[in-house]
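Notebook, p. 212. Picked up where the previous page left off. The plan for this session was modest: take the two constructs that came back from the sequencing core last week, fold each one, and keep the raw output in the notebook itself so nobody has to go hunting through shared drives later. Recording the first one now, exactly as returned: residue sequence, then the structure token string.
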Amino acid sequence: MSALASRDRLIVGLDVPSVADARRMVERIGDAATFYKIGLELVMNGGLDLARDLVGSGKQIFLEMKLLDIGNTVERATHSAAATGATFLTVHGHDSKTLRAAVSGKAGTGLKLLAVTVLTNLGEDDLREQGLTASPEEMVAHRAKLARNAGVDGVVASALEAARVREIVGPNIAIVTPGIRLPENDAGDQTRVATPQVAIAAGADYLVAARPIVAAADPRKAAQIFVESIEEGLSLRSLGSSG
């Protein structure tokens, strides 16, 4: 992952109401970003066609679908998602059956699977409400092991757990970190957030930022600031490695 350019490590979340809004946002950002996330809001409103169009124009796409269903459904849905040309697709990392079904569904394609460990808007009280006694950190570690053993390509985890996840999954599995904010940004509905510098220095390979960019007065400039912050994080990581 070390050969990735800083700009290619930034995934801009197109968390906007419509495909038309998304297309305008991509135009406003221009060459400041190369990678875009399309989530459920847009998928339900023509987002898969948008994904195909953006792939055709040379962009990379992250389909944030968080698949979780019986094996046959997950396998077939994964295969269909691969047909869009997307680079990443998320699947919940709750259990090995779901993960292995997704791995089977993407076989023979260029799609890469990301296992979601614990959503970054969830804290310990939320997990307890679900009947789970483990802490978010413990659940992330457990699900990272499931993902590694199932043969997925990456995991989604907060910056707070990135270093531990890297120890578990090794150097060849990607870590994608959402909940990224600049120091001046509001956390919004996220609970476990971090700056780009902290997340990259901790071992994240890709960072996902939505509102801090798409809601900015100048989205292109905001994306450029994130890329500069990623470069700073890579420098910090390098210093840590050499030290």
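Okay, moving on. Second construct, recorded in the same format:
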Amino acid sequence: QSIHSASKVVVCIPPAIPSISSPTSTDCENSIFSVTIASTESGVAYQLLDQDNKIVGPTILGDGASKDIDSDPIPLGTTALKVQAFKFGVSCTIVESNSVSITINPSPTISLGPNPSVLYNISAQTVNLTFSG
């Protein structure tokens, strides 16, 4: 046992709030969006989130430069993306960027019509398919 030491205050310094640029704002479901994070911090991890705080991409590590972070394929119903920044092993340091709006359209569909026709030719075959979509 020893004498009590003087108390020390431990301060948790959060990362800077990331600033992100808007990706292409409209695309089809299951497309991949790329978001640019301006001025990442060395040793800080960055994750891409949707409007419901669901992780929608990989975690990347900052190095002091601007970085692009690509999403996973984005499902229909996603309306916004943002980035959270955090330091590993310290729970009080999670900060979030601005949110950018995106529009996801359903994937296009095509319907084949009836009665395709085939033209036989010795050098090449031609198949005519009617469709809509």
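Notes on construct two before I forget. The mean pLDDT is 87.
Flagging for discussion at group meeting.
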